[in-house]
Write a structure and sequence with these properties.
This protein is α/β, with parallel strands linked by helices and about 350 residues long. Helix 2 packs across helix 9 and helix 3 crosses helix 9.
């Protein structure tokens, strides 16, 4: 992790026109958490894509991907038309390691450590699972209240300084964040909300952790009516399928796509569900390679191919969102496309049920 700090400082120095490093908060063991912002200078208002890695300590391929992602964007933003296009409209915020204490502990003491390092019960047991500690259906399913469990959800929602720092930051910026990406391993999945309910989204309603909310829909502003609302969970699924197809195109790696509770297991208090619940339209968990033969201890020769294929999936999602929210310059109006073209400004609203 000292290495990751050095890498962040160096990346910022050598790409100062694009990258800034920002303070996010402190861990339970008082280490500083930083995120990187990749932003092309511009006078237009931009939206944000957020990505975090290393919520779980032992998932070493995750921080490796965050670093790879940053490196690839910086090396290619001038030459790759896709990247240079979305950087005009979108800023990228990357948190390379959320669970710094746990990550270091997994390097130095226990390779398979998962949680953070907060002491409980007078130091007789350690660690909260940060991905069960967010404030969405907290503590309701797929968690343990026993502090020695791998999936201990903490003493309350956002009880951990790491979770709290990230949640407060995202909460502050949420009206500008179009996409929340969180990178984990392993299993080869792209997971959509929700983990805490298995009710599949219907076209008329979507189930949300908070009962006061009805469906989150994308509504075209032009009409002020609900007629062209698209249930966002259906749209998320479509985009995830595009992403998994792009990923498979590189090395043939197969990723399964679906809502967490339907294709994997139920969990509450995850960052992905929380981000979607506070109104961030696109929210995904990536579970990187492999399917279990090496599990968390992925062989070094798989690091690069994993990062390469995941890069394709992630840029597919970002590119899609960019094109949806920032349609290209002048639109040719023909009678057939007229209705559509006038509705290109899109707003997200919670429809109260």
């Amino acid at each position: 992790s000292g290495e990751i700090y050095q890498w962040m400082t160096q990346i910022q120095k050598s790409n100062s026109e694009l990258v800034t490093q920002h303070y996010l908060g402190k861990t339970i063991e008082n280490r500083t958490m930083y995120y990187l912002q990749i932003s092309q200078p511009s006078d237009k208002t931009k939206k944000i894509i957020w990505m975090d890695c290393g919520i779980h300590a032992r998932e070493w391929i995750s921080p490796a991907f965050c670093q790879w992602f940053v490196k690839e964007i910086l090396q290619n933003y001038k030459s790759d038309p896709k990247i240079s296009r979305f950087l005009k409209n979108l800023d990228l915020y990357i948190l390379p390691v959320l669970n710094i204490d746990g990550y270091i502990y997994s390097w130095e003491k226990d390779r398979l450590w998962r949680k953070n390092r907060s002491p409980h019960m007078n130091g007789t047991c350690y660690g909260t699972d940060l991905n069960r500690n967010f404030n969405s259906s907290w503590g309701s399913i797929g968690v343990s209240y026993n502090c020695s469990s791998e999936i201990f959800c903490g003493s309350g929602p956002e009880s951990e300084p790491e979770t709290r720092a990230m949640a407060q930051f995202i909460e502050r910026k949420k009206s500008d964040i179009l996409c929340y990406l969180t990178i984990h391993s392993y299993g080869q999945y792209i997971l959509t909300p929700y983990g805490s309910t298995t009710k599949p989204p219907s076209n008329s309603e979507e189930l949300v952790g908070d009962k006061n909310f009805g469906p989150l829909k994308i509504i075209a502003k032009c009409t002020g009516t609900d007629n062209n609302a698209v249930p966002i969970l259906n749209l998320q699924m479509r985009v995830a399928k595009k992403a998994s197809a792009a990923l498979m195109g590189k090395y043939g790696t197969r990723y399964e796509v679906g809502s967490t509770s339907l294709i994997l297991y139920s969990n509450s208090g995850s960052s992905r569900d929380w981000a979607h619940m506070i109104g961030i339209p696109f929210s995904y968990t990536f579970e990187l390679r492999d399917k279990g033969s090496h599990g968390f201890v992925l062989p070094p020769d798989q690091i690069q191919p994993t990062c390469e294929e995941t890069m394709l999936a992630v840029t597919t999602i970002i590119d899609y969102i960019d094109q949806k929210y920032f349609p290209g310059g002048a639109v040719m109006l023909t009678s057939g496309s007229l209705g559509l073209s006038l509705c290109l400004s899109v707003v997200l609203t919670w429809t109260v049920s």
